[in-house]
Amino acid sequence: MSGNPFWDDWYFHLPNFLLAALMYTLLGRLLLQMIAPPDWDNYILKAFRRLTDPLLHVVAYVTPAVVPDALVVLLAAFWVLLLRILLFLGFALAGLQPATGLG
Rounded to two decimals, what is the model's pTM? Predict the structure, then answer.
């Protein structure tokens, strides 16, 4: 054990961190699209789009076409949240969940 809880359980924390970053990027994109005009040419919105478009294409492929684009972003954030929960449950069932430090 190295003493650093992150590196002790890196196999859990690294994918969880990446999924959390993706989920919050999706939520940030959703909120920014709600207040910004559709043709807004801002570098923050461009970065959000560049980071989240690959996932949105996958989610849009399995989502009915009548669902608005804003809801596809919300659905993608939900699927990423579900993946994070399944990641934790998978590690917990395998006995590899990280220590909580509660005792």
Answer: 0.84
